[in-house]
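Hi! If you just cloned this repository, the fastest way to understand the data is to look at a raw example. We've pasted two of them here, unedited. The first protein comes first, obviously.
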Amino acid sequence: MRLDFSSKNLPADIGASITMALVAIPDAIASAILAGVNPTYGFNALMIGTPIGSLFTSSQFMNIGSTAAMMLAVGEVLASFSKGDIFTALVTLTILIGVFQLLLGIFKMGVFTRFISNAVMIGFFTGVATVLILGQLGDLTGYTSTYSNKVMQALDILLHPGEINLPSLLTGLVTIGIVVLLSRTRLGNYALAIALLFTSITVFVLGLDSVALVGDSFQISAEFPTPALPSLHIIRPLIMPAIAIGLLGLIQAAGISQTIPNPDGQYPDPSGDFSGQGISNMASGFFKGLPLGGSLGGTSILLSAGAKSRWANVFMGLFVALFVFVFGNQVEKVALPAIAAVLMVAGFQTYKVEAIQD
């Protein structure tokens, strides 16, 4: 465990942690919806997995959070389980991911990240972003397609414009507009939170009953998570998915180790970051949380907000917990088209047009 605590960094770290919490909360809601599970599990991961894992990473600044690529993969895995088994499968999968990542860190496998081709990474994340965007069209338009293929779902929506729910579509488009406009201002870091809050309040005030809400599908638990144990009976079918998702999280985090130095000017040890993410996911799994990985976007936000040490991530978990205890039940009133819009914006931001053209 690396404490690296200095009282002189406290004001800056607390300020950065508040900013990051405001960003991470709507992201946790969107990530959970993307994975097909209750947003409560996204909050649990931030309250438990992020602060604990942050104490063990080699990187001082690495933000361990949920990522779209990992959530897409988690959603595909959980879809193969019955509704009654999804919770147990999530707990088991998250813990297995953590064990795998921790083992890679212990055996110093981080050295191999230097051999990952940039072109391969760009191609992979471009594909992930495309699937992410297409997968949100249903919630954005309020139209449920009978097709399972994302491309066919998009075409199906285009062929049935009369069945699009106009209030849902307008809610999503307004959300996108707010995020795009605010991202160019000083409020850019809070764009997601402001957009979700504004559009959800508007839906409530105008009484747009046809717009789907989080509460229509999930009941949010505004309380501290209790421990849960994995199921030994489903470990075997989850081993390979856990390895694949674990690697995905580590590869995403490798960019932090390679590009963002610690305060002393030294670059973090990728193997140390592997271990930190592994511990984070084991803790998250045992306390009913989503799988987590190193987030380059979250790390950049922390730095831009003035973070000075790893304690910004630790304090962030505390502020998320405060939010959940006070306002957690209100998450049920968040509009699903607004969440879909936020995820689509995230997908478009993933595209690296210049790199793809090269």
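Ok, and the second one:
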Amino acid sequence: DSATITIHGRGGHAARPHLTVDPVVIAGSLIMALQTVVSRNIDPSQTAIVTIGAVHAGTANNVIPESAKLLLSIRSFDEGVRAKLEQRITEIVNAQVMCYGGSAEIEYERGYPVVVNTAAETEFARQVAEELVGPQRVVFPWGPTTGSEDFAYYLQHKPGCFLRLGNGEHSPMVHNAKYDFDDANLTVGAAYWTRLVERFLAQDAD
């Protein structure tokens, strides 16, 4: 899920902060307060993440701006946890901003659902992968990961398996400035999908 929080204050000159409602100060306080959403509201045995990925406010060092904006990424596996995160983020934002005399707008967007692979299709995908590259080059089972994926929508309607094609043990992940796609993956990937289709059609023929 994602949230855009816009904090409205009252701008002014940096030399007269007492005449303003500083949205930058409010944003700083809110950043720290939001760190308690997971640590003090969610069962430690559950997975939950609240990341503030961007903060935008002001353009000059001697001007207190009118507003500030925070961009959040929120992740979980459980629908109850998902609802709790939204509830607590909304409550904390409104209460914290009001304490400083400002106001807030929250645009909260429910994103992709959780990817849940089905057992039979996952086992079939594993068998084909091990047949192609050997079991030593296949990581299975693979535990839960908190990245989001729109393939989840397919799995809500049809059984299937979402899997990853590795890019090398020491290669940086995507969304990293040093990420470099390994061109050798094109051959491996094409071979895997071809064999997957062949084995699937062979099952149907049998």
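That's it. A detail worth noticing about the second one: Helices lie at 23-34, 36-39, 79-99, 119-133, 152-155, 184-205.
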